[in-house]
Amino acid sequence: MVTEMDQNINIDDVDTKMEKKSLIHCTDVNVFYDDKQALFNVDLNINEKEVTSLIGPSGCGKSTFIRCLNRMNDVIETCSFNGSIIINGQDIYDPEIDVVELRAKIGMVFQKPNPFPKSVFDNVAYGPKLHGRFLNKSDMNNKVEDSLIKAGLWDEIKDRLNEPGTALSGGQQQRLCIARAIAVDPEIILMDEPCSALDPIATARIEELIDELKVNYTIVIVTHSMQQAARVSQRTAFFHLGNLIEVGDTGKIFRSPDNEQTEAYVTGRYG
Amino acid sequence: MTDKALTLKRKFAETRFKIYGLASLFLAMVMLVVIISSMTYRSIPAFTNYGINLEIKLANEFIDKDDLDYRGIIRETIFSLDSECDDRKCRRSFSKLFSSGAAYDLRDALEEDESLYEKNFNFYILFSDDADLFYKFGIDKNLPENERRLNDQEILWLEGFQEKGLVEKKFSSNLFTNGDSREPEIAGVLGAVIGSMYTILITLIISFPIGVLAAIYLESFASKNRITDFIEVNINNLAAVPSIVFGLLGLALFINFFGMPRSAPLVGGCVLSLMTLPVIIIATRASLQSVPPSIREAALAMGASEMQVVFQHILPAALPGILTGTIIGLARAFGESAPLLLIGMVAFVVDIPQSVMDPATALPVQVYIWADSPERAFVAKTSAATLVLIFLLIIINLAAVILRKKYELKW
Fold this sequence. Notes:
The structure holds two protein chains of two kinds.
Chain A: H1 2-16, E1 22-33, E2 36-47, E3 51-55, H2 62-68, E4 79-87, E5 90-91, H3 99-105, E6 106-109, H4 120-130, H5 137-150, H6 154-157, H7 170-182, E7 188-192, H8 200-213, E8 218-222, H9 226-232, E9 235-240, E10 243-249, H10 250-255, H11 260-266
Parallel strand pairs in A: 3-8, 3-9, 6-7, 7-8
Antiparallel strand pairs in A: 1-2, 1-4, 4-5, 9-10
Chain B: H1 3-43, E1 48-57, H2 70-79, H3 88-95, H4 102-112, E2 120-126, H5 129-137, H6 152-163, E3 167-171, H7 174-177, H8 190-221, H9 226-238, H10 243-257, H11 265-289, H12 293-301, H13 306-334, H14 338-342, H15 363-371, H16 377-407
Antiparallel strand pairs in B: 1-2, 1-3
Helix pairs in contact in B: 1-16, 2-4, 8-11, 8-13, 8-15, 10-11, 11-13, 12-13, 13-16, 15-16
């Protein structure tokens, strides 16, 4: 285990040539749905406290990959995984790992805003309650307020905490989902096309938010919008047909990618 | 064809379809109205009863409260109407005009008001069903005397009462406060209603938790393999099994094997649970499936375990559907009679059941028993009991609607 980790860190140092410490080490990740292979030998390291975007045409496996990071693929019965993903020195696919604890450290925001059909307050308080934190009422109020402030939603809905979360607008719902995710103080936030169901103004708001959040959280975002990847991320990984084609600084990927396929994709020639 | 012709054709097809829909809706409504109104019309006579107000003279009599001959008092009172009638045959014929329930009514009245033991008071004595029908519908006097329910002398008496203005028509509360009886004028549905309630209560207690938990397990936890497929097919088949088969099963299993009492709501409830279970399981699974998967994903990603996801998110969201399915299943069980016939709930039970172990009958079975009775007065009673059954079913279905509205979540 130790040697494997050392190896990863070495690869990472060569890879990015940056001082940023890498937090997630993925080695040789293969994912199958039944017999169909969705990811082929993906090796990817994700740095702490910055935004990594995953881009690529539809069906390229980027959503499958992001869902490996918090083992959300476990719930799909036909899905099988092999390889290793190490977060904080721990292999998250180790049979001894408790998925529930893992997911408490890794928040996730989905493509379609999916607040629970409960009040705004209960939506945010759900995670802390679930994990047995902030049982005191005023602590809980503070936590909810704090999370909503961080998600940039507090000023808009501080008087509407008892309304159902589903009554908010789409952009507000998505920020509510972000608030819900950060209420459990995760280290990592995964975002699977968080803006694809939102209008440009709500999208801009979320992008600003991502920018603010990266100070405290490691963020992985899947996006179909190249502009969005360019705007919010520091590193970009390009997937194609289940293979990781290229990964590097966002500037480099968009300006002078090493790989022809990457270039064709980011310049809009296909995908 | 031109664009315009196509548009016209499409619009015509739409209008035609709308008309078909409205027509079938109208037809359904008409049938419903016909059924309910004919039922109501036939049942009207059952809600009233003719009787006669007579003075009961208890003053100046020595009375032993513990051993009072109520029947004797009633006889004495009614024979005072016609003092010439003193031979056995005449007296029997005369007393046939009055309900045999009058003695019990008198006992109840005296027990309620003890001061009556020492006075003379007016008491309302019910007529028997034949006399009652005579006042309601008359009688065909052209029929030979031996083919009539009442002979010439009896008709004379009844007409005499009417001329003297003694006859009085009253609302028949017996229908709602009594158990079954051989005498139509004192027979009521209360025993059957209570029996049905006990039966349904047992059905609910057994089938709701088992059905819902089985559905949750099958839907959310069981792995999909041949065994669960097999179970699923069998549950769907069970829902289509004729109810009388469940009755046979109940007879063999609960009564003959486990030795549970015959005619008891407990057994009835068990049998109806067997019948209702597949319905509840199927309805519950359908409503669990209809909860958007995004809610499940959201909760899982927050770190909820599979069980927490089910009980904190999916079940509350599916609850309206589950409750509706359960209540519809129970309503079906409530109107079921065939399996109950087989386990002996078709017995003639006069007493109102006090527990689930007492012999009882159910409302639909009561309808069957009355429809089968030879007395003409039971025709109206049958319709009245049917109305009560329909009324209770409407209440049950209304409960389903209200519960659904109450627990419905906004997405």
